[in-house]
Fold:
Amino acid sequence: MVSILPSSFAAIFGSFTVYGVLQRCTEGPNPSPNRLSSVTKATSTLHSTVTTILAIYFIRRCRSQWAEIGSPSATESTITSETKARGLYAGGYPDDSNNLILQTRSILGNAITALECGYLLQDTISLLREARLRHGLIHPSSKATVQSILKYGDKTLLFHHVGIASALLVLHYYIHQDRESGIYIIVQFLLMNSSTPILNLRWWLRTYHPQYKTLRLVSDFAFIAAFYMARIWLVGWILRGYGKSHGYKSAWKVYLEGMRLPCQLGTGALWLANTAWWALLVTNVVKRLPQELAEINKAIKLLKK
Structure:
């Protein structure tokens, strides 16, 4: 029988508490919505930087340990139509029972996911608080409701946080039962956080320093590149890394032949959503580009006078 307060959940609570204390100490008493938003973005930048560094260290450490004992997959199996037809793999999929990419267990990896989960839960509260404060400024005499909070809050970010945090809570339920797998892959996906500092820099420049037109434009294109690498290219990189342990030559082959349907649906939905957001980002930046360049050119002419 599992205990009600396992250590893995205690780690999540610790992360939640630390980020909560940091947020409250930084924002000060009775913060305005803008102040709360700025502190939330600063905390987000700190967290994404820390988790990215920890994730890179964890990945390099795992690879170093695997290099000492040989291949990350003890079976080094290659899937062919013949092996599928003969039923050598359950349902025609790779046998990962000895594959360290999926079977590796790590206290550090678990701690990184606990840090992420605690942060997402705390940041969700900050987003809801900010939305309630904005509602209060516009409608001071009316009481905030769930509908009004969603109206003035960042719905996309809220649903993102709730979805990812819920998945991580389920993961830690399995961790407590010693039934987890794929922690290496999960930590790799946390490298998506690496684009967040540039996102927040872009927001900071546009919100507080719109006069820095050239820097704003540079931050736009830097974020386009960072978003693509961290949230689109990364998915293919992870699939290729897994596929090498089974002889696959491309991420597409892994997706079509080496993944079960639930994994295909989840990975495909994530990739499509990120690609759609990236396409929207590129479209908006390109639309604004003539105006941005005209403003920069105008500023240069004024400096020359």
Observations:
- Residues 1-5, 74-79, 81-88 have pLDDT under 50 and may be disordered.
